[in-house]
Amino acid sequence: MRKSQIKRETRETSIDMSLNLDGQGIAQIDTGIGFMDHMLELWAFHSGFDLKVICHGDLNVDSHHTIEDLGIVLGECIKEALGDKKGIYRYGQMAIVMDEALVTTTLDLSGRPYLVYHAQLPCMKLGQYETEMTKEFFKAVSDHAMMTLHIHESYGENTHHIIEAMFKSFARALKQAVMIDENHQDQIVSSKGVL
After folding, report:
1. Which whole-number Å values give the CA distances from 65 to 27, 58, 109, 135, in the listed order?
2. Which top EC class is named for this enzyme in its record (predicted)?
């Protein structure tokens, strides 16, 4: 089983996260931010990964540190759970519609962190969630999972729908990328021989 568990403690946040890439989409999430809980629950469901998160952050300041640090720890969990990446498909892509919104995520578990993020979010805040932090979350995931991650909103009007489509498309694309290719279980999908 490809699993990881990471605890990260700073003056701003305390995060305990576990991830199972070969799970059943079971989520136990408590970040202190209702919208973030909802997004991570959807992410677990659509990826099929089991995800457990307990986070305490300085929400009396704002949501910045909590959301960015959640991205850091999720990225580290993904990287650790993947190990040497033998047998994985490596690439994933998924377009998801959420009512009027369309978002496509394309990713490569390349070992090279890079984020391309094209999205316009009309609303600045959803509950305690500051929507500008969406980009910072995915940047932190990309940097710490060592993945190339492209997120493109083709169109959309409702901020909740756009962000939800991002998390769902990211989940489905990553699900593809981490799948084991039964014909190449002992191979690393790179001409360099390493990812």
Report:
1. 22, 7, 25, 13
2. lyase
Give the angle 127-129-135 at the CA atoms, nearest 5°: 150
- Return the HEC string of 113-128: CEEEEECCCCCCEECC
Q: Give per-residue pLDDT as tens, 49-83.
A: 999 999 999 999 999 999 999 999 999 999 999 99
- Counts for the chain of helices (H) and strands (E), in that order: 4, 10
How far the first Cα of the chain sits from its last, in Å, is 20
Residue 127 phi/psi, 5° resolution?
65, -125
Tokens of 124: 């600045």
- List the structure tokens of 78: 């993904």
Q: What is the DSSP letter of 194?
A: -
In this prediction the pTM is 0.97
Q: Which residues contact 38 (CB under 8 A, 6 or more apart)?
A: none
Please give the helix or strand (H or E) that residue 5 lies within, else none: strand 3-9
**Strand, coil or helix: 48:** coil
Task: Report the C-alpha gap between 78 and 89 in whole angstroms.
Answer: 15
93 forms beta bridges with 106
Question: What domains does the chain contain, in order, with CATH numbers?
Answer: 3-184 (3.30.230.40)
